[in-house]
Amino acid sequence: MMRDEPAGYRRFLDGVARAMADEDDIWQFQLLAGGSTLVARAADDDGAAVALIDAGSLNATVAVDDIARLADLAVQVGATASQGRPAAFVCSRRTPTEDAVKVAYLRNLRILSVHPTGEDSWGYDYALLSHQKITQPPNAPTLSERQWEDVHHDIRYAVFYDAQHIPIASFAGLSALLAWQEENDLAGTGGLRHFDLPAGTLMVIPDQPPIPVVGVTLRFHKETRPLRAAGEEGAFADLVTEWLWG
Question: Where are the beta strands (DSSP E) in 70-214?
Fold first, then answer.
């Protein structure tokens, strides 16, 4: 995979850092060796955050290896993931591989993508779910109506494990994939996406018994949410701070 030249992503990260600092002076930044990854540190009354911002795949397709590299680096620098905050962000102008998105959510990373929405305006695509259906194997125990209510109430925390009890996806990761669904594909499916899961998969939700599943079907529509920034680096900076602080 072709990665950006160091000078290119250094300029990009400088722009992201300036935009974040202009918005709030709580930030401190450190460019790591190689020049493709920025460490952002902040602390205020809402707590502290240490996060990585990576631009090495800005003009490349983000793959699983990129996520694994950044996740390991996040551990080395002590990136925090408290209160649901991601530990690292990958900025990219291209559609990532589906496996990269799944692994990113399992390792508490986020792949960020923004696009212009008009003159001096930027936004990002978001998939809004309207319905989800869980398909179980024929021999699975039957759940009561109350149990299904509990499942759907907390399904955003679900993680799917294969027969060897290795995590293969999360519900949040599958939902995030929908934001990159092509508009032409949506026209043919009516905003419906089905994910097959391998035999022996268990869906695990905290404080609930594991549930055997073979598929997940999501009904959704895409919308573009506006960002405050007038430029690309500022748009990525807005999205990072939105993830970190809400």
Answer: 88-91, 109-112, 115-118, 121-135, 159-161, 167-170, 192-196, 202-204, 211-212
Express each pLDDT in 42-69 by its tens digit. Answer: 876 656 778 999 999 999 999 999 999 9
Closest CA to 175 of 210, 221, 135: 221
Q: Residue 114 has what DSSP assignment?
A: -
Q: How many residues does the chain have?
A: 246
Q: How far apart are CA 158 and CA 211, in angstroms?
A: 10
Structure tokens at 38: 């920025």
In DSSP terms, which residues pair with 30 in a beta bridge? 39
Contact 112, 239 (CB under 8 A): yes
Cα→Cα distances 143→158, 161, 216, Å = 16, 19, 16
| Pairing state between β 47-54 and 88-91 | parallel
Under 8 Å between Cβ of 68 and 102: no
Q: Note the pLDDT tens digit of each residue in 5-49.
A: 667 889 999 999 999 999 888 899 999 988 899 999 987 665 677
* pTM, full prediction: 0.92
Coil, helix or strand at residue 23? helix
Q: Which residue has the tokens 């993830």?
A: 243
Q: Is 9 exposed, middle or buried (0-12, 13-18, 19+ CB in 10 A)?
A: buried
